[in-house]
Amino acid sequence: MGAIAVLGGSFNPLHVGHLRLAIEVHETLGDQLERVDILPAAHPPHKAESHILPFEVRVHLIREAVAPYPWLFCNPMEGERNEPSYTWETLGIYAEKEQGKEIVFVLGSMDYVQIPGWFHGPELPERCSILVAPRGFYSAENFVQDTLKMWPDATPLPPLTKDGLTMACATHRIIFQPLPWLEVSASLIRERWMAGRCTDYLVPAGVSKALEERREEIRRLWS
Question: Phi and psi of 175, rounded to 5°?
Answer without folding.
Answer: -115, 125
